[in-house]
Specification:
3 helices; 8-stranded mixed β-sheet; STM4215-like; alpha+beta; 8 strands
Length: 139
């Protein structure tokens, strides 16, 4: 399993979140016809820790979680639900063992309407550092 699928499993199992978004939790992008609200997540970068002689068995990816909706207030409610489950968490995310989750940044944005659309979408982006265990290569 990957940290992305672990994150989907972890967040997808939170009843307070799924009561807001249903199953609309997507990696990288949401399909064009997705109804709001929805959440998109992506690994932005994934640095791995090292010792002098080998890998340290730990990675700390930056994972961006973005909440989209036509109403800013709803975006904020959902992003707060996500923050409450993520910030400071340690434990299992799917089959991954997470040591710590740290909220690094949060920003609120607006995507104007596209051609043929009546309204744009607000979105709240949260950047998390998720420290988790990885296998150490052997040579």
């Amino acid at each position: 399993m990957s940290i992305e699928s672990g994150l989907k499993s972890y967040l997808g199992g939170k009843a307070d979140l799924t009561s807001q978004i249903g199953t609309r939790l997507f990696p990288l992008f949401a399909p064009q016809t997705t109804t709001t609200p929805f959440v998109v997540y992506a690994v932005v970068s994934e640095p791995h820790d090292h010792t002098l002689t080998a890998g340290a068995g730990r990675a700390t990816p930056r994972i961006q979680v973005s909440v989209y909706d036509e109403h800013l207030a709803d975006c904020r409610v959902i992003s707060e639900i996500i923050r409450a489950h993520m910030q400071g968490y340690s434990g299992a995310m799917g089959s991954e063992t997470v040591s710590a989750v740290m909220l690094e940044n949060e920003v609120t944005l607006y995507d104007p309407p596209q051609a043929g659309e009546s309204s744009g979408l607000y979105h709240v982006e949260q950047d998390y550092f998720v420290m988790y265990e990885v296998s150490v290569p052997t040579f």
